[in-house]
Amino acid sequence: MLALDHRGSFVETLKKNKINYTDSTIVSLKQQLIQSVYNDMTGLLIDPQYGFSAYQNSDHHEKLFLLCIEKSGYLEDATGRTTELEYEVEYLKNLGASGVKLVLQINPTHQSFKSQIDTGEYVFAHCKKYNLPFFLEFVTYGEGVKSEMITRSISAFLEAKIVPDVFKLEFPGDTHSCDAITQLLQKTPWILLTKGIGYEEFKKQLQTATEHGASGFLAGRALWAEAMTKIDSVRNQFIREELPRRFRELSSIVLKA
Description:
This protein is α/β, with parallel strands linked by helices. The chain has a single domain, classed as Alpha-Beta Barrel (TIM Barrel), CATH 3.20.20.70. It has ten helices and ten strands. Strand 7, helix 6 and strand 8 form a beta-alpha-beta unit. It is globular, with a radius of gyration of 18 Å. It starts with a strand and ends with a helix. The mean pLDDT is about 95.
């Protein structure tokens, strides 16, 4: 699946590469990205602010899509990082979403971790109420071993009886850690996120992860961020040719695993 729910980070990417933008520019760029891999993707993750308009305005928009529910970014204070919700599950369902994605910044040693569990519980309950699949994404931060933070967080959510349909996780570091996650989750699938790394590095991570239990990928910036470093016709060519090539290459890794 294609991850294109970025809002603040998408704008920052454009600023970094000195691309002049308006809201309509962002929608247009996202529309280009979606159309380039439409025939290859099984679905996509978009945001209600820009991505939804981009998808609805595309030539084809019959595939399943997830919508993100959280505000862009996070709050941070002495207790750690917390997520704020921007939408309600009912609203996303009325937009036609096939599922809901929630990203949580996590560090199980921080005081804010409890409130992150509460947020996850709230969204999980409403997804069940409205019969929508729930994709739960963890992004680690702060001091600590990444694999331990991920497994401890998964355990805490499962103990709280928060069992999403899919966990969206960053690469935990090695094959042993992937095996540990797969064993911990049992029948609950997990897929890999890119977390802004380069394409070649993500490809290697995906190879390892899928050989040790991951079910697929929901990839964003590793696929398309490089396009924003190019100008005009070169960028358009990259989106038209290189992006679908990369997507197909990642898909083949999953299918061979």
